[in-house]
Amino acid sequence: MPGLGASFGRGAATNFQQDMANSDCILFMGTNTAEAHPVAFRWPMKAKENGATLIHVDPRFTRTSALCDVFVDIRAGSDIAFLGGLVNHVLTQDKWFKEYVLAYTNASSIIQDGFRDSEDLDGLFSGYHGDGATGKYDAQEGHWGFTGCGNQESGAGANGTMLKEEPGIQGHDLQGGAQAHSAPREDVAGADEPLRDPTLQHPSCVFQILKRHFARYTPEVVSRVCGCTPEQLTRVAELLCANSGRERTTCIAYALGWTQHTTGVQMIRTAGILQLLLGNMGRPGGGIMAMRGHSTIQGSTDLATLYDALPGYLPQPAADKEHETLDEYVKHEGMTTGVWADFRKYIVSLLKAWYGSAATPENDFGFGWLPRVDADYSQLAYFDRMAKGEIKGYFLFGQNPGGGGPNAGLHRAGLRNLDWLVVADWFEIESAVFWRSDPTGPPPADIKTEVFFLPAAAAPEKEGSLTNTQRMLQWHHKAMDPQGDSRSDAWFLYKLGKRLKELYAGSIDPKDQALLNLTWDYDYDEEPRLPDGTRSRIEGEPDLEKVLQEINGHRLNETDPSTREPKLVSSFSELKADGTTACGCWLYSGVCPAPDRNRSKERVRTDNPLHPEWGFAWPDNRRVLYNRASADPDGKPWSERKKLVWWDESQRRWVGLDRPDFEVGKPPGYRPPPDATGMAAIGGDRPFITKPDGLGWLYAPAVKDGPLPTHYEPVESPVGNLLYPKQTCSPTVRMFDGPLNRLSRTPTGEFPVVATTFRLTEHYLSGPMSRFNSWLNELQPEMFVELSPELAAERGIVHADWLTVVSGRGRIEARAMVTRRLRPLLIEGRIVHQIGLPFHWAFAGEVVGGNANDLTSLVADPNVSMHESKAFACQVLAGRLEGTAAGPTVKAVRWPIRGGIPVTPTSAQPEGEPEHG
Ligand SMILES: Nc1nc2c(c(=O)[nH]1)N[C@H]1C(S)=C(S)[C@@H](COP(=O)(O)OP(=O)(O)OC[C@H]3O[C@@H](n4cnc5c(=O)[nH]c(N)nc54)[C@H](O)[C@@H]3O)O[C@H]1N2
Ligand SMILES: Nc1nc2c(c(=O)[nH]1)N[C@H]1C(S)=C(S)[C@@H](COP(=O)(O)OP(=O)(O)OC[C@H]3O[C@@H](n4cnc5c(=O)[nH]c(N)nc54)[C@H](O)[C@@H]3O)O[C@H]1N2
Ligand SMILES: [Mo]
């Protein structure tokens, strides 16, 4: 999540769900938390009981809106305008938290002379190369950098610059692709402090640029872009301001309503600016809660399921960069100041974890064995190539792109072009039965793909750790062996690795050495047992606790007396760059600090409301990131009510409820000597320690589509850009235009209705985990589309009757849900209709129906290759679709089930106790 990473340093939720109970105000925007995170929603409800004000800003009135105090409906995709209006209010009404902003943000930094803002250039920043529709920025040429941060070595200009040659570029940038999530490659190279103007008067200081940039986002303009009233914007702004400051804190929660846009990263950036100006970061009840999706999605990004990141957000070495040797890689990707100054320790320890004794100083610790990124392997770009027939085979573990991928029709066309496909899943999903059941596909005889279906073990049939929204690792235990031939994903991958190693054994071909030298030794020492003490039936299951220990890290030159194995490290601060430590992911260090201690298994309740002994949160079990900012520059809590971590002068250390996200012994008054490097360069009053200057970045030149957020329309919108008429959508978007992905560019007349997609509590994602379940199907039986009575009347559509939705990619039918949850919006002086589509149905399962993703498109934002399924253009018609419809692929289970409903004893309920908070 580079929106957060660019602003604060780390791309993850800053606080934890339970902490929302401490908020005085919560802005839910781009999330339907009550529906999609119903368990977490109890803490906002607690806050409400305590008198907090809850606000929901969403295109639709939802279950969340119903429980909030204030609801504002806006047009999908117009969030930067709304948030920009909030920023403008804070600045023009002089409501920003002065001491906080001056001390903890880069408001006073002075930007280079040649920088031109989007306000000056009709919607473009300086340094743009392209045709206004697709293109990219050269941040250096555009002078986005800070003044006075010379670093001649990295090719900086004579006037000094803080930009590396090309900020945050990876191999896939060869194809104009995205950069890794919040990777360390900051644009700041120099250890020098940039020039600052603490009076904030300099016309080129960040604060003044910010003021000018957002001046046009007045309540009236926002109203014309978003469709809300000017008073609604002002009301929300006043609530946020009244609930921020020394005594009070506001939290902002978002999820996909923000991320799934071509401007999503910048929406999150605007929230970051707002929270920094209001002084809400690093404080209880404040922060930004990125509500993460399914289990361990946070863990997946931490541990590098992203093709362009190694574990712990180290960038994957790239073919087109100076990454030939370890030294070059560290020089170009590491930083001299802040936490990332230890970059070499992290990468060397990772190489030691992977290649063991084969990794030596002489061979660069095997750095040469790491594959180099040479193209964009993100899902969208990859399936685009697959649909063009450029990919031969594919493994699909726990994903259903043929049902849930944006433009699912194109994804299925890709699958049809493969020679072979392995699907490991619980169900025969769309991506496994596309060759026989896709009503829009060719006959099976015309499809060449050979599909291997592997039955996957379900969650209770395997163990392991998950990392959830609040960066917390929690272990889950295995309850029983998998049924029949099902196996855990780990079993399959472990076996596959062993077989490949056997196959290549003895090879002296240099390209095989990476595989042959990989440590692959996770066999159980003792036969694994089930909870009832019996032996597991499964042969060859890997011991995932060993994997977690490898991730945690070891001291290779010290032996643990109890195990006679290398000693485990207790924190990433112990890691070394000389090959004497091994660590699979520096961020997770500390989760297994001793052989008999796996902190992800810990479930101890203490008096501390942060429950530090429940699971383990990265980094270093810190629950609120940047929590040094909960105290003032002198180290005293901003207020008694909002205290969290503070400086204890008598003990000469930071103390409090949370583990300090700061060097514990560094006094508030510490000022770095000139030329200091590493953590020594971070002053005692600089809480954002993963940023090279320790500050929160209001202005962030590392983001590819601009250092400040700017309102652009979605790629497909019925209206033009009111703020920058010459620049309709984001100028750095990547389009995958083609016959399988027909786009209807902004402003489109052909498709006048704005469509957005959403979730229901009763279903899960593209539906495999719920549409094969009779009981859930009974609760939400059929695909429907939410539309306003006005739109229904215009099109002659009757509630509960059929309607058809058409986009450039396809057409689907659904039942009409005519409802006042959506209302026609007045945009630019004309009526714009919106519809909402759940995306849980497709053609496999016991209920089938129209798939919203047969309408969505393949477009990618420049930072993370994110699609725009939350705002696209469509047309709505009365009546059914012509042609064949899918039938259920499995039979519904009859009710009542044989043997009646099982009675679950209280002792088998979670925690065995009926605790309701
Ligand atoms: N029961 C259930 N729970 C789930 C899931 C599920 O499928 N079922 N999925 C899980 C996953 S993987 C995820 S990522 C999360 C997602 O959690 P959420 O993001 O909260 O869920 P969504 O319903 O996709 O979208 C949230 C809201 O965004 C609104 N929205 C759409 N476009 C815009 C826009 O442009 N601006 C604004 N402000 N709002 C907009 C939608 O109307 C919707 O109300 O949920 C997780 N939880
Ligand atoms: N239009 C639109 N499209 C969207 C979204 C949206 O808001 N709007 N949301 C997007 C989001 S946030 C997400 S996360 C994606 C999700 O998209 P997917 O990742 O494709 O999610 P699912 O459709 O649930 O498919 C997951 C599959 O994993 C299987 N599975 C579950 N557990 C295991 C396991 O332990 N092992 C194995 N091997 N398989 C398992 C399930 O049976 C299921 O078939 O959808 C995206 N698509
Ligand atoms: Mo998700």
List the topology elements:
Elements: H1 2-8, E1 25-29, H2 33-36, H3 42-49, E2 53-58, H4 63-67, E3 70-73, H5 79-92, H6 98-104, E4 128-130, E5 135-137, H7 206-214, H8 219-226, H9 230-242, E6 250-254, H10 256-259, H11 264-277, E7 288-290, H12 297-302, E8 309-310, E9 314-315, H13 326-333, H14 343-355, H15 379-387, E10 393-397, H16 401-404, H17 408-416, E11 420-425, H18 430-437, E12 450-455, E13 464-467, E14 472-476, H19 489-504, H20 513-517, H21 544-552, E15 554-559, E16 566-568, E17 581-582, E18 616-617, E19 645-648, E20 653-656, E21 734-735, E22 753-758, H22 768-771, H23 774-779, E23 784-787, H24 789-795, E24 802-806, E25 811-818, E26 825-827, E27 830-832, E28 834-838, E29 859-860, E30 872-878
Parallel strand pairs: 1-2, 1-6, 2-3, 6-7, 10-11, 11-12, 22-28, 23-25
Antiparallel strand pairs: 4-5, 8-9, 13-14, 14-18, 15-16, 15-17, 19-20, 21-29, 22-30, 24-25, 24-30, 26-27
Helix pairs in contact: 1-11, 5-8, 5-9, 5-11, 8-9, 15-17
This protein binds ligand MGD (2 copies) and molybdenum atom (MO).
